[in-house]
Design a protein that fits this description.
With 597 residues, this protein is α+β, with helices and mostly antiparallel strands. The strands form three sheets. Strands 7-14-13-12-8-10-11-9 form an eight-stranded mixed beta sheet, sandwiched between helices. The chain has a four-stranded antiparallel beta sheet with strand order 3-6-5-4. Strands 1-2 form a two-stranded antiparallel sheet.
Length: 597
């Protein structure tokens, strides 16, 4: 009976332990290091100071004498111990530099910390220190956030070092139940600590994901959102779009300063209305809507809808100036006028590229504070075009462009093409278009993986390509290099203008007859075609190019969306442009020179 009960109890405990281990997870080392950086730096600085004290001849207590005689013995550090202490101090200082400068990954620092701690412990154990100092070492690892596996390995190594030292000095093995229990207790405490850190990491990560999702959802309702302090006046967090609307840096300024005098009292009433129900209203209740006007510095007045939510009760903040209290969403009531206001205040602002939608109707309740001009713009008679920034335009000769690409220099301000293979493909494309293009064409050169990453996902609604000639040119140029005469002949014939932009009905190749001569050439950096006569679907660029057609717009979209792309676009009139993306800006080079076909 007793054996059966013991067996069932052991099985139950084992099942619980195995279940716990199967659910056990740790926070990433990088996250732990970021949160425990200063604490780890403190421990390393402390141990470095202690070791430097020993290296300078400081006195210490020899625990070995205490074990043998029963009384502590004070003696100065010996020469070899001083040398070892100095080496450990240097290692601690090196770790201090690593943790403060972030020059190494978190996993490396964790291994480094445990290794130096073991060396320091072995140094002290060899001098007879295996008492309280080792316990402090173990607590240092726990408080520095060392994960469970490195923690167990380090503790076992320290214990083995102590036992080997005791065996050598004939002190006997100290494998007492108290030591075993201490080891188990240390492991359990560190495991619990790491589990708590994992819960904290999961909560923080979940909150960050929810915040991003909320921001994306909010952007579909409002053009910009900002946090006001608990006093309802100070703008706590700025936003480039808000700065563009107001014409100045809005952070740490008074929100009411941008409201007309007659609107300020209505804004205060709206805040009071939001605060009145903040402690009692349910989560499904709408926020307060206040149609109003914003007057930016040097900008024309802009009609807006303000969505006001009081979160002081949830955050536990009172009338404090530095703590968030109100979330205010701003929706532009007259979109095209608002974009003009942004352009006047800051023509280079990225907010212009993300111009507001044409029309957004209001579905939220106004809570009795709506003004006479209403909360939504009237439907326009025509569709309004967004006011987008232009690409940066340059002029260069064909020879200058050729020299810049060939030598890798920035003679015409081009980013360097690092790969010789890619440089050769771009140069071959330039020669092909200048010498063999009989009409307009769009030619894009990039890594094959880049094309696959952007245009080959196969996801419905994602950017993709579609053959305009049922794959005729793609199959015709299969396995043919761009510098091959067959490629050049086919390209010349493809770009030759016809009355209907199709292959002639009497063409020698029956498969070509009547097929469209339209679409882009996509070339890999190896010099072989990826796809020809391709329609590019779903690509856009947040810029506008005045005075050009859809082919040139498609060239901008290619250069913007495909990483590392070099795009040539030639019009039927003979003008040639070269397009590349540099960081977040599109650069267009009009190529002038003789020798064009």
């Amino acid at each position: 009976m007793v054996l059966d009960s013991a067996r069932r109890g052991f099985a139950c405990c084992l099942s619980y332990v195995l279940g716990y281990l199967s659910r056990y997870r740790e926070a990433p080392a990088a996250w732990i290091m970021e949160h425990y950086r200063l604490r780890s730096a403190f421990f390393m600085a402390n141990w470095a100071i202690v070791d430097l004290y020993l290296a300078c001849g400081g006195y210490t207590v020899a625990d070995q004498e205490y074990i043998v005689t029963g009384a502590p013995h004070i003696k100065p550090a010996e020469g070899w111990l001083r040398l070892m202490a100095f080496g450990c101090a240097l290692l601690w200082l090196g770790g201090l530099v690593i943790v403060l400068t972030k020059i190494a990954p978190a996993s490396f620092f964790e291994t480094y910390f445990c290794s130096v701690l073991m060396l320091d412990c072995f140094m002290r154990t060899s001098h007879g220190h295996h008492g309280l100092i080792n316990v402090i070492y173990v607590y240092s690892m726990m408080l520095a956030g060392v994960r469970l596996c490195p923690f167990i390995v380090t503790v076992l190594m320290i214990a083995m070092g102590i036992q080997v030292h005791n065996a050598i000095f004939s002190c006997g093995w100290m494998c007492k139940p108290s030591l075993v229990w201490s080891f188990v207790a240390f492991v359990l405490v560190d495991g619990a600590h790491q589990s708590e850190l994992r819960c904290l990491y999961d909560a923080q990560h979940s909150l960050a994901v929810k915040n991003k999702a909320t921001a994306r959802l909010l952007s579909s309702v409002c053009d910009v959102a900002c946090w006001l302090a608990a006093d309802g006046l100070t703008i706590l967090e700025g936003d480039p779009r808000l700065d563009a609307i107001l014409g100045c840096k809005a952070e740490n300024t008074q929100f009411t300063c941008y409201l007309p005098v007659e609107e300020r009292q209505r804004f205060q009433s709206a805040k009071a209305s939001a605060a009145k129900g903040s402690g009692t209203k349910q989560r499904h209740d709408p926020v307060v809507l206040l149609p109003s006007t914003l007057n930016g510095a040097g900008c024309r007045p802009c009609q807006v809808d303000l969505f006001i939510e009081d979160v002081r009760a949830e955050l536990g903040t009172a009338e404090e100036r530095n703590l968030p209290g109100f979330l205010v969403g701003i929706r532009l009531a007259i979109p095209d006028c608002a974009v003009m206001c942004m352009a006047e205040c800051d023509p280079e602002s990225p907010a212009i590229a993300a111009s507001p939608p044409l029309y957004r109707g209001s579905t939220l309740e106004s809570d009795g504070v709506a003004s006479s001009h209403g909360g939504a713009a009237s439907l326009p008679e025509t569709l309004l075009s967004p006011r987008l920034p232009q690409p940066v335009l340059h002029n260069c000769t064909r020879e200058a462009l050729h020299r810049a690409l060939l030598s890798g220099t920035c003679e015409v301000g081009l980013p360097t093409v690092e790969s010789p293979r890619a440089r050769g493909a771009v140069l071959a494309s330039l020669d092909l278009i200048c010498n063999h293009a009989s009409g307009g064409v769009l030619f894009c050169v990039a890594e094959a993986d880049a094309f696959e990453q952007v245009l080959g996902t196969g996801v419905p609604g994602a950017p993709c390509t579609q053959s305009s000639d049922q794959g005729y040119m793609t199959d015709s140029l299969r396995g043919i290099h761009i510098r091959d005469a067959r490629f050049q002949d086919s390209f010349r014939e493809y770009t030759r203008h016809t009355h209907n932009d199709r292959w002639p009905e009497d063409h020698p190749d029956e498969w070509a007859r009547g097929r469209p001569k339209d679409g882009a050439f996509l070339l890999s950096t190896d010099g072989y075609r990826v796809k020809c006569s391709a329609k590019l679907l779903g690509l856009t660029a947040p810029v506008r190019w005045e005075g050009v057609g859809t082919k040139h717009e498609a060239a901008l979209a290619c250069a913007w969306a495909i990483p590392g792309a070099s795009v040539f676009v030639k019009s039927d009139s003979g003008s040639l442009h070269f397009v590349q993306k540099r960081e977040t800006t599109l650069h267009v080079y009009q190529v002038d020179g003789d020798g064009f076909t």
